[in-house]
Amino acid sequence: MCSTSDIEIWTWSELRAESSRRSIERLVAAGGLERLRRGVYATPTACADAREAASHGGSLGCESAARHLGLWVLDTGDAHVWMRGHRHHQGDDASGCHCIRHWDDGPSASTFELPSVPRILLQIYRCRGTEAFFVALESARRLGLLSTAGLRWLRGVIDQAGQDLIDFSRADADSGLESLVRLRLRPFGWDVRTQCRIVGTGRVDLLVDGWLIIETDGRDNHDESSFRHRDLTRDANSASWGHVSLRFDYALVLHDWDLAERAIVATMSLRP
Ligand SMILES: [Zn+2]
Ligand SMILES: [Zn+2]
Ligand SMILES: [Zn+2]
After folding, report:
1. CATH number of the domain to which 229 belongs
2. Which ligand is nearest to the CA of 65?
3. Which end of the chain, C or N, has fewer beta carbons within 10 A?
4. Residue 69 lies in a domain
């Protein structure tokens, strides 16, 4: 999540609604406000991504907004900018700019306010596809950022495939990797349970047909040898109870899924 949750970027007229011309100019002179471009000001601590979006003429949108809010995203590092329906794309070289612009119109209380979480999810669905949408959706549900009314709005504006993903989503997914693996195993028709406890091992990420354990290790927390020992102990324990374990890290799930899937399918064919 971004360290600055407030956006802290305003237009000149938004600033003028709150304070006098003199005091704004004094604040700029003292370094408490910076001019991003003509008529747009930010505090020095304002979110760097939001400042960049503002310099392109909009606010954070889509995956960039989701990342700012701390949602799990299939990060590509692109700048997604919400232009609403009517903004002008700005910048030194606006014609050759690589920012990804979103032109869907929607309500916003101020010029650089983020889209609502349901709108962010809709933008991700249309811009980045089903998998990126699904992990962000489960992350938003897990973090309690999607109200019942918001979910209803999203269901009303999204297409049938999106509605199907909403039905399949849960509010207790532990990580984006887990969400992604569950979604990718869906076509196989296995019974995939998440976060269930099994005897001798405790809580596991995914349990397929009550037999195969799949653990998805996050980005940074499995380098230390103490973690490695803990994982090996878990695997030995579950094997002694007749389970088989497969363990995939971020790189395998994101960049070498074919291999991971072949491992799962081959292992499932050995099921007693
Ligand atoms: Zn986008
Ligand atoms: Zn941010
Ligand atoms: Zn741009």
Report:
1. 3.40.960.10
2. 2
3. C
4. yes
- Burial (CB count <10 Å: 0-12, 13-18, 19+), residue 231: middle
Taking the centre of ligand 1 as the mean of its atom positions, its distance from the CA of residue 184, in whole angstroms, is: 22
Q: Which residues does residue 114 pair with via DSSP β-bridges, in sequence order?
A: none
Task: Please check the confidence at residue 111 and state whether its pLDDT lies above 70.
Answer: yes
* Among 13, 80, 9, 92, CA closest to 47: 9
Domain that holds residue 250: 176-268
Amino acid identity at 264: I
69 shares its domain with 103: yes
What distance in Å separates the CA atoms of residue 194 and residue 75, rounded to the nearest whole number?
Answer: 24
Q: How many CB atoms lie within 10 A of CB 258?
A: 9
16 domain residue, yes or no: no
153: part of which helix (H) or strand (E)?
A: helix 148-157
**Which residue, 55, 54, 53, is CA-closest to 64?**
53
**Ligand with smallest separation from the Cα of 99:** 3
In this structure, are 102 and 186 located in the same domain?
Answer: no
Which tens digit of pLDDT belongs to each residue from 121-147?
999 999 999 999 999 999 999 999 999
Cα 105 to ligand 3 centroid, rounded to whole Å:
18
Residues 193-213 pLDDT 10s:
988 888 888 889 999 999 999
- Please state the domain count of the chain: 2
Task: Select from 103, 1, 93 the least CA-distant residue to 47.
Answer: 1
The one-character DSSP state at 37 is E
Q: Has residue 46 been placed in a domain?
A: no
